[in-house]
Amino acid sequence: MISPFRVLFTAAVAAASFAALVTGSLGCASLAVATAPSKPVIVDDSPAAKSAEEAFWSTLHAGRYDDIGPVLEQLEAAYLAHPNDPRTTAHIAFLHIWRLSERLRNPEQHATVTDDLALARRYFQEAVALSPDDSRFRGFLAAAMLGEGKIHADEKLTRRGFFAMGDAVDAWPEFNLFTRGYVMSQLPVDDAKYQNALDDQWRTLDICAEAHIDRHDPDFSPFMAKDTKTGWKRACWNSWIAPHNLEGFFLNMGDMLVKDGDTTTAKKIYAQAKLSTDYASWPYRDVLERRIAEADQNVAPFRNPPKGDGEHTLMVASRFSCTGCHQQ
Predict the structure, then answer these.
(1) CA of 17: how far to CAs of 8, 29, 61, 265, in Å?
(2) Does the structure show a pLDDT above 90 at 40?
(3) What is the DSSP string of 255-277?
(4) Chain centroid to CA 160
(5) What is the pLDDT of residues 223-243, one digit of tens each?
(6) 10 phi and psi angles, rounded to 5 deg
(7) If residue 319 lies in a helix (H) or strand (E), which one and from where to where?
């Protein structure tokens, strides 16, 4: 007769052995992953990569939303051939963000467009891994994490995105204070984080002007001579990448003030866009003029935008959420 104690002892030994095996396997897996070589950065100067990059910029600068699909095909073909170039990787991510952000351009709305956010996050994550010192990529990655966290009701991902965005702001405040505020402008107006997002816009102006901007009577004209195309402050001004960055900034900030109910200050902020020497060529100057004229009427729709209405909604959810700054 087999002793029950012997059975228990044998089972305990087997369980312990299995646990040791599993623990050992997990340890080996962790070690294997930790010691894997990092993906090297290899700039792709092939004709295919150069052609794809040219297609990206010409499409974005022309605001050709309908051409996103074919350009993505070019970029992803270049990526598959050389998956080590941070530029190609980031451009793929940005096109996915653009397609989602300006989805109201499509006559038909499809729920599957939200998949673009997951793809954007994956490619921005890759771009950050390849170019960790590029704080633009870090800010865009954090924005994608926040958006995807909201879609999936994933609080852990949302919080990771929030803190990642804070790190991106610390790394390049001139660029990422706007990025953070822009993403957060979609929050309800009575959410404390919405007020923080509005403060991010004021802080951006203060940093760019290197002075305190009056919160009730803003005037950016004394600081226009600070325009630069180099250094950290280049994010404050128009550039080849964002030909109407300044105009788009003031359009968005005015929208946020309207949503907040401060239409008097909003009209003054909107008007700052006209200080730009590029204002006359801005494709969305008529939008800004209507915003000034209709500021008081836009408070309610900005807080609760009509479904499918690309006109009476904040810039972040409009048909020009990306092209408002990037279209020539």
Answers:
(1) 14, 18, 63, 71
(2) no
(3) HHHHHHT-HHHHHHHHHHGGGST
(4) 15
(5) 999 999 999 999 999 999 999
(6) -65, -40
(7) none
> What residue ranges define each of the domains in the chain, with the CATH number in brackets?
45-171 (1.25.40.10), 193-328 (no CATH)
Q: State the amino acid at position 68 in one-letter form.
A: I
Amino acid at 8: L
Q: What are the residues whose beta carbons fall under 8 Å from the beta carbon of 267, sequence distance 6 or more? A: 254, 292, 295
Q: Where are the alpha helices (DSSP H) in 63-191?
A: 68-81, 86-101, 115-130, 135-151, 155-171, 173-184
Cβ atoms of 276 and 244 closer than 8 Å: yes
**286-316 residue pLDDT tens:** 999 999 999 999 999 999 988 777 778 999 9
Torsion of CA 98, 104, 106, 109, to 10 degrees: 110
Distance of alpha carbon 256 from alpha carbon 263, whole angstroms: 10
